[in-house]
Amino acid sequence: MKIPTQHCTKHAFRLGLRLACGAVALGLAINASAQTAAPAPASPPNPAPATAGANPSTPPAQSAESGAEVSTHDNPVTFQERVNLVTVQVVVRDARGAVITNLKKEDFRLFDKGKPQTIARFSIERPGALVAAAPTPASNNPLEAEEQKSQPAPANQPAVATRFVAYQFDDLHLGMNDLTQSRVAAGKHIDKSLHSTDRAAVYTSSGQTQQDFTGDLSLLHQALDRIRARSQVDPTLTECPNVSYYMADLIINKNDQQALQAAALEAIDCMGLDPSSQMDLATTSAKVAAQRQIGIGEQESRLSLLALKNTIRRLSVMPGERVIVLVSPGFLTLDTHIQELTEVVDLANRSKVVINTLDARGLYTDPLGDASRFSQTSNTFSQATALLYLRTSATVEGEVLGEIADGTAGAWYHNNNDLEGGFNKIATAPEVIYVLGFSPENLKYDGTYHKLKVSLVSDRGLTLQARRGYFAPRQMANPAEQAKQEIHEAVFSRDPLTDMPVAVRTQFYKTSDTQAKLSVATRIDIRKLPFRKENGRNVDNLTIVTAIFDRNGNFLQAIGKTLDMKLRDATLASRLSGGISVRVDFDVTRGGYLIRSVVRDTEGQLMAAENGSVEIP
């Protein structure tokens, strides 16, 4: 039975299909449905929303001459190749530490290995301004405006989480004293700062203490209380000779004879050897101790970076502001770890995760003035040399915290004993992040490190935080996989994307006391799409992915469809003001849900994304 257009809204509303009704009347709506189980576990899988399956759609209108003008399929979409683009996130502050929010592309200068680069992309991100769901604006589209008038007032929106903070304690490098003080400070901070739309998690570098995202303060405190120092080096034992990881690197990797001599002299004293006849034994003992420290130090640094990557991946699927607070005394990243450190920064930037770092050592104390740091050796040269290395090591270890923060638009809190105040300052993302993108000229796929520098045309006493470098890729990125990755990242973001206008509407009806059918309609304004002419038709493809999350931000399910358009000029003209609607259905239980819809076209690689939320009583 054909439904007259003027009665379509009421009839479809009774069927729970009202949101796509106007497009159905014109034969250009695309419907897709999928069945979901009860809400998925809190720990999400690694979904690939762009290829998620869906039931076949209702057949669209047909053309007698050359087939459907609009159709859907589940085949992979091939996107045009994109040039290599390096992104650099920058935070600019004034002398008081306030973030500067009104800069433009022309204000920045960017250098790669000292050579000036053209800033091809420029955008401004405001991670602290994300909200659960913006109210629907009045539409200029007559069809959509008519739907809005007849649509009942929305129910109370759920208090879904919009900010996610992961507190990562580096228990592999933290001493028990620093760890205890930082745990207490973190507990006080969480009690005062956690709001109803915030979720916090507690992780450790060793992985032996974990509390996933929750709003339950008691669970967070229990996790904090369970954290212990997990270093393989027993602080109650005095090594003979006592060789630090920094000295071990100098001895084993850099063949530093002065460091080896200092360790050998300490071995003579602590082992009671005769320096005139047993110097070779002392030197061998120093090398053995250094080799042992290299093994322990490399493993603990690698585990700390790996744990940080895992936390970024966990945060990357949370739909809101994403912040990691890394609590650590710092740790050495030798030449073998530089690429791993860069990968951490790259992953955080792609996942839109800000990493703030807190040096748990507090106010810096020069080890040269600390008599307790002297070993049992009576050799003045050995004492002075070892402590000089200790001072340098402390500086280098802390510097890695600054590099991680700078590279991810985060803040580095250090040299201050007010740890609670530090937590309060760095538990949020900066108000504004400037994202600069450039395509390196004559880039060689050799995996070499490129040092970056960002400056302002006129600094005006301002300070910049920006990533310090990147590694060139070893091979050209696969464009299809890159496109899928971009869609994936957009689905698990909360940032609005506005290359084309997109609106999201929700409707539900109860199927039982506990079950409901949730319909999500994504309406796409196609006026900005760069259609390609082919055989007298206007050709473009759209990939539409709709995902739902629970009120804690845990991913539940995504449905993806590819929409092929081969529109006649007359059809395209008639749809310029009406757009195209895509509807997907989810079987859900009672509760609050966050909705995210992402759209991308093939021809122009434009992207759009819109958020929504619904409470099902």
* Biggest sheet statistics: 7 strands, antiparallel
User: Which structural category do the helix and sheet elements fall into?
Assistant: alpha+beta
Low-confidence stretches: 1-66, 73-83, 130-155, 370-376
What would the principal axes of the Cα set say about the shape?
A: elongated
| The CATH fourth-level homologous superfamily of the largest domain | von Willebrand factor, type A domain
Q: Say how many strands there are.
A: 25
The mean pLDDT is 79
CATH architecture of the largest domain: 3-Layer(aba) Sandwich
How is the topology of this model organized?
Blueprint: H1 5-14, H2 21-25, E1 30-33, E2 70-73, E3 86-93, E4 108-112, E5 115-117, E6 121-125, H3 142-150, E7 163-169, H4 176-193, E8 198-204, E9 211-214, H5 217-226, H6 245-253, H7 257-271, H8 279-316, E10 321-328, H9 338-350, E11 354-359, H10 380-407, E12 412-413, H11 419-426, E13 433-438, E14 449-456, E15 463-466, E16 469-471, H12 479-491, E17 497-498, E18 502-510, E19 515-524, E20 532-534, E21 537-550, E22 555-567, H13 569-575, E23 580-589, E24 591-601, E25 607-616
Parallel strand pairs: 1-23, 7-8, 7-10, 10-11, 11-12
Antiparallel strand pairs: 2-22, 3-13, 3-15, 4-5, 4-14, 6-13, 8-9, 14-16, 17-25, 18-19, 19-23, 20-21, 21-22, 21-24, 24-25
